[in-house]
Amino acid sequence: MNENIDFNMDNVLIDSEKAVLAIAMHSPKASFDILTQLNSEDFSLEKHQTIFEAINVVSQNSQNITITKLAEFLEDKKLLEKVGGVSYLSDVSGYFYTDEGFEDYVEIVFKNSIGRQLDRALIHIKQLRDSKSPIDEVFVIAQQKILNIKTDIKKDDATAVKETVVDVIKKIEALEKNGGLVNGVPSGFSDLDQITNGWQKGDFIILAARPSMGKTAFALNLAVNAAERQKGVAFFSLEMPKEQLVQRILSSVSGIESGSLRNAQGLTTEKWTRITAGGEQIKNMNIVIDDTPGITVLQLQSKLRKMKRDFGVEICFIDYLQLISSMSNKFDSRQNEVAAISRHLKKIARELNMPIVCLSQLSRSVEKREEKTPLMSDLRDSGAIEQDADIIMFLYRDAYYKTKEYNVGSDDPTDETDIIISKHRNGATGVVKVNFLRSYGKFIDQSKNI
Questions:
Q1: One GO CC annotation, please (predicted)?
Q2: By C-alpha distance, which of 214, 203, 358, 223 is closest to 288?
Q3: The total number of structural domains that make up the chain
Q4: Looking at the chain, which terminus has fewer C-beta neighbours within 10 angstroms, N or C?
Q5: What angle do CA 233, 234, 238 make, to 5 degrees?
């Protein structure tokens, strides 16, 4: 590196930008990483942005970048004088000595870029507040601007297959050593895990059913099963307050009828012992519940990111899709709005590298058919859900249509329930049969007893 570089704190950013540009000019190996990890907007000076773009274009047409080639390109675009002429290109070029440690310079440039983006966002938000814009609108714009700031340096996503196959074989070896145990977040249902191999990182999973089929109960079962296996769980309940959710979990864990917990009737000493033990068991579960009604997809993204950081959350449940709001007026129909929310949830799952299980309603068309088994076309509000989801599951209980109302005191308060996997992007589809113990809101494998 040029020995005349001034490392005074006032000049370190400009020197770092010059060093990054110089290394991109002279080192083909480092140039690839620099051009992949940074954008022209990441540079603070306009002339540095222009030079970076020139390097990017020239490098695509020539393996060797020289000051002459850059000068010719910029002159052709009538930009050479704007960047300070050949003399400034020579000055920048002089900052190259070695490409060793270039990552440090890239990080300085990138971190300062984040700071400038944040400053611009805050200024824009302040201007909106000063203009007396509606607070809801300001809040949504503020979230969008903050969340759109990328805080991680871009990496090249293209990977040679010879590298990927090594990772795949390692996963297979790990599975073999673990006796074929699931490598995702376990559902707690053996037949379901056999098909899915657990909920996989980055997957967007839809769980859909008509009302009263037990969507929320099943989602809570999945959440508890994951938490019992030491997984951090986030549960967004847009319809039911957290107290009711925890009461349902307590009924399932303790084996006390949900009706008895609701009205506190018939609670013997033995039942109180089970309730207390169930409460202690729940205390040890890493489940974080957010019951904000009408939450927006941006709020959900922000909260989930914080939950992952603060609570080690590894899987997210959302009850349910149609209650999430985009808080935007640009959509001409609710169907298009739900489609946008669905796409955003898939994006969040990929970005946070965790499975998101989202409950969804089904349209009333199911009730009008002779055959009540749900189909993917029955997903309410949006056909885009079908495209975005990695897994689509339906709950179907034939007994619901035969009795409509359940007699909890009947001799057999258990209903056979089908978990219908209609779409599985990375595996098989099929039907898994479980038993629903409706008095406790608990699903179990058919081979098990409560």
A1: primosome complex
A2: 223
A3: 2
A4: C
A5: 145
